[in-house]
């Protein structure tokens, strides 16, 4: 085609096009539509290719829908179904069985985008080391959730605070509140609370009553913690003249556990938080109001008592210590309330759940129970109840405790460990504000580390120090790094003292009509992993009557 011909063809073409575009018969509209579709597709391709590029750098995980991420799939997975493990009667909760499925499908690092929140689930020791050890400083932040605001007293407690304040309260825990000296100082409280517990079981057992192990041990741990912290048992709380009707700290803590355990939509879609669809914010505000009322009363009482001459130089309980801090260490009322609450919640339930699991495993495995009792008889005898100083001389009993903490970690999933800037994890790039959840339960049950991981076999800890396994990040019942449990030593003392005393003091058997095999080991799906059904047992005293009455 010559240039003149081309010019004419183009003119004709433009004229035809102009007539189309001016034509209202529909062809023009169709062209506009087509242009729109092309524009949209090009835009979508651009966006999608960037998304694919971005996602290629993320750990593997289920498909993400725009805006909702993987929420729809997780919601439609069968939350109620329980999966029985093949090699033991241990049964995982529905939530954790879903996570288990994700781990099987995608491996030890799973990326989940839920609503607008990013999560990474870490399920083996090697990956946990990256988060809790190598890059601990980058991953120790916590997201600012509604729970953190109201139960962390505006992020001033231990578990939800960060930065300078977190460093200060952790130092206080290590050097004063939960130090070895402090634990020694309060040994008499543990012994007195233990005596009450043993006496309660003895009375119930003499009447042939069924014993609810969880309630019993929760009473013991709450008594110890409340006395250490506030010099009062939880049962006193209704009497402090604050207008509470039969409010006990135990019931408050129970309510807290229930609210914390609930999943709510605004966790994943924060911009609908103001709607408070599930009414959770109202619940949390109300709990905060009652806690503040309670704690303020106790703080005032302690302040008055400290001002009086006789106690000014003598700190008796942990609240006294907190109120006596001076200079840079001085804490606000919010921080004091946060520390007290963290210690009661963190200290009571995990210790009680560990004792309940241990006793359930022992009754299910009578041969192991027998060995523990023989060891106690040989080393302590039957004329007196054991002392804490006897515990290091009971290696088989110690192995039972360690095995319980491995197989049934009280806190199976960590709180979120968050990075505030984008960060590299293994070969992946995690966007900022990703919440890393460490799956402590999966780490302790990793079949590449532990033989028969779902079997209760204390023998595996007989000749190996648990600290060796902890250093290798193969079992982490108390977490690791900056966010590791500050109350690990106290927790361990409570579990050991309660369990050893119950096993030395009584023979334990299932309720009438049951055999050991009937005791289920189904886990609850709560933040603290209790048995799904409370352990009910019959006890028979094995020591002289005078031991239970002292
Ligand atoms: C058997 C008993 C206990 C177990 C199994 C246990 C377990 C744990 C675990 C696994 C964590 C780390 C969570 C994470 O990685 O985010 C933790 C943190 C914590 N625990 Fe414990 N704990 C026990 C007893 C206690 C006691 C007795 C106290 C206090 C008196 C306590 C107070 C805390 C606090 C305040 C945190 C948060 C630490 C922080 O974020 O800096 N725990 N606990």
From TrEMBL:
This is Cytochrome P450. Gene3D superfamilies: Cytochrome P450 (1.10.630.10). InterPro entries: Cyt_P450, Cyt_P450_CS, Cyt_P450_E_grp-I, Cyt_P450_sf. Keywords: Heme, Iron, Membrane, Metal-binding, Monooxygenase, Oxidoreductase, Transmembrane, Transmembrane helix. Belongs to the cytochrome P450 family. The keyword Magnesium does not apply. The chain crosses the membrane at residues 30-48.
